[in-house]
């Protein structure tokens, strides 16, 4: 495995990037525990802990491919051509670990807006992505493979009445060299407020 150099926490944050093409090995069980525990440190208004994760590995990945791709085809999505299906199956077969991500809908909550719960779940995913990178692996957040098809969500045990399904994290060892990302300068996105306009 090619371990990414993350000399300092800030260096790790600034060098993380999405890596779609992955292979084994996946994080070891103790590393996966550390990665998932990092998700628990996300900011979370009201301590609702809305994030939910489903770990998919080994033979279950092939089963997920079967379920998800058949459901996408049944949904009538014209993008799922035979060529696309073949490509997706090949990609999934190379990835050693998937984590499905969902936000649990707090039906009885009247205090914390749902968009804040969604943001908390997104923050938990960012913690996972950073932890994966800091441990020398690669990851990719995918909303393909049936994320917006209810049958797929239900097959994962995430009833659409109670969960908002947000896709999958594909995790493993980068299959090729990963060049640095060309990041924009933060100054293009920041202003300083000194009083009413």
Textual characterization of the structure:
- It is a single chain.
- The protein contains 6 helices and 5 strands; from the N terminus they run αβαβααβαβαβ.
- The protein has 197 residues and is α+β, with helices and mostly antiparallel strands.
- It has one domain: NADH Oxidase (3-Layer(aba) Sandwich), CATH 3.40.109.
- Strands 1, 2, 3, 4 and 5 form a 5-stranded antiparallel beta sheet that branches.
- The longest helix has 21 residues.
Name its key features.
197 residues, alpha+beta, globular, 6 helices, NADH Oxidase
What's the CATH topology name? NADH Oxidase
Number of domains: 1
- For the record, the CATH class is Alpha Beta
Query: Given the structure, what is the number of helices?
Result: 6
| Helix content estimate | 25-40%
- The assembly state of the depicted protein chains is single chain
Outline the biggest β-sheet: 5 strands, antiparallel
Q: Report the mean per-residue pLDDT as an integer.
A: 94
Query: Could you tell me the strand content as a percent range?
Result: 15-25%
Helices and strands, in order, run as HEHEHHEHEHE
Gross geometry: globular
Binding site for FMN: 16-18, 45, 141-143
Keywords: Flavoprotein, FMN, NAD, NADP, Oxidoreductase
Domain Nitroreductase: 15-172
Protein name: Putative NAD(P)H nitroreductase
Short précis:
By secondary structure, the protein is of the alpha+beta class.
